[in-house]
Amino acid sequence: MSGDEANMARFCATALDRCLKSGGRVEGPSKLEAISVLTSNPSSTKMPHSIPVLLPNGEYHVIHFDGSTDIGDCLSALCVRCAL
Fold this sequence. Notes:
single chain, repeat, two-stranded antiparallel sheet, 3 helices, alpha+beta
């Protein structure tokens, strides 16, 4: 297996493990999620997706997540960022 293939295999194994530890998924990946993983290099980061969130103070904070991240994890990150 080449370096890229090995990196992708490692990413997939890690993503599957995280998903199983969080209780699995009810729905399969969305088209947007699949395209995001396929068009980027997910092996270079643990969290291949991100979304900018405008905070009340006018700053943006980028939340990083993957297919096994639940909304509670994202909200916790925002609360920490806002010192709540």
